[in-house]
Amino acid sequence: MLGTGFRNSRYWILILAASIAILFWFIKFELPSRKPTLFTEVRLQDLPGPLLPERPERLQQALDRSIAFLATRADNERMHFGKDTIPVPAMRQALLRLKRCIGHGMAPGELHEVIQKTFRIYRLNNHVEGFHVKRGSLLVTGYFEPEIKASPRRTNHYPYPVYGIPADLVRINLREFDDTLPDRVLWGRINGHNMVPYYTRWEIDYRNPLKNTPVLAWLKSPVDGLLLHIQGSGILEFPDGSKRFIHYAASNGRPYHSMGRWLIDKGILKPSDAHWPGIRRWAERHPEQFQEACRINPRYIFFRWEEHGPVGKTGQVLVPMTSVALDQGIYPLGGLYFLDIPAPADTSDVQEGLQSFSGLVLSQDTGGAIKGPYRLDLYCGTGEKAGKIASTLKRPGELFVFVPRESNTDKK
Question: Residue 30's pLDDT is what?
Answer without folding.
Answer: 43
